[in-house]
């Protein structure tokens, strides 16, 4: 697919500099095959996958510190895949997922750009059950609570794919829909710990960014 322009950026995380191919700006759009409307992606949303957003950077930083041993990890709406690349570099068992038609190509390119093995990728629409994807001990995402229907859809994905003992980590710039999402996860047995984080160098206390960390002790599952 052509018709858009890209650039390379460098993002330091944990003493390592990641090289990333991103879209040149937020106005990029190229959908000659008409995938967007079929996937529910509007022209205004089309370019959002291809940027390094502050919440995505927060998530990648968290994944640099997270204890990955014996954890199967799923990233939702991975975009260019920075958090998954951080996990891949650490040797984690990670699957990146999204539904944007360009995500897989950008993810593969960025893995190569950083001399990493290809990250396992899965095209995942939140409203379409995919039992073959299996279960995960950690599910992560960033910037996924800005639309009204997202809390319910996201909670549905977690209900289907979270292991009996699981964690969910979501970074968010303060969208009001996070309250509804937390309520839905509480109904699934998750307890929430919230940490405020600066979204950029100019952010002041109380910070806008939030690291929402949900933990569920082992329980029976119907799946």
Automatic annotation (TrEMBL):
Q: Which UniProt keywords apply?
A: Methyltransferase, Transferase
Any Pfam family from its record, for instance, is: Methyltransf_16
The answer to whether the entry has keyword Transmembrane helix is: no
One of its GO biological process terms is: methylation
Q: Which InterPro entries is this protein grouped with?
A: Methyltransf_16 (IPR019410), SAM-dependent_MTases_sf (IPR029063)
Extract the CDD domains matched here: AdoMet_MTases
A Gene Ontology molecular function term of the record: methyltransferase activity
Checking PANTHER family in the record gives:
HEPATOCELLULAR CARCINOMA-ASSOCIATED ANTIGEN (PTHR14614)
The name of this protein is Methyltransferase domain-containing protein
Identify the taxonomic lineage of the organism of origin. Bacteria, Pseudomonadati, Pseudomonadota, Gammaproteobacteria, Lysobacterales
């Amino acid at each position: 697919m052509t018709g858009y322009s890209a650039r390379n950026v460098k993002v330091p995380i944990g003493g390592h500099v990641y090289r990333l191919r991103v879209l040149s700006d937020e106005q990029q759009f190229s959908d000659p095959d008409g995938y967007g409307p079929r996937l529910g992606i509007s022209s205004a949303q089309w370019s959002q996958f291809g940027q390094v957003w502050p919440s995505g950077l927060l998530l990648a930083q968290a994944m640099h510190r997270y204890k990955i041993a014996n954890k199967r990890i799923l990233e939702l709406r991975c975009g260019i895949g920075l958090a998954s690349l951080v996990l891949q570099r650490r040797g984690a068992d990670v699957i990146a997922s999204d539904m944007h038609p360009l995500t897989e190509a950008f993810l593969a390119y960025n893995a190569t750009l950083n001399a990493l093995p290809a990250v396992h990728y899965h095209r995942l629409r939140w409203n379409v059950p995919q039992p073959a994807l299996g279960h995960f001990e950690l599910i992560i995402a960033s910037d996924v609570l800005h639309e009204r229907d997202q809390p319910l859809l996201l909670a549905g994905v977690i209900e289907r794919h979270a292991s009996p003992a699981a964690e969910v980590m979501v970074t968010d710039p303060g969208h009001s829909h996070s309250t509804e999402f937390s309520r839905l996860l509480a109904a699934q047995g998750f307890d929430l710990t919230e940490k405020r984080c600066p979204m950029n160098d100019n952010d002041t206390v109380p910070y806008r960014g939030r690291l929402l960390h949900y933990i569920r002790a082992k329980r029976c599952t119907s799946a």
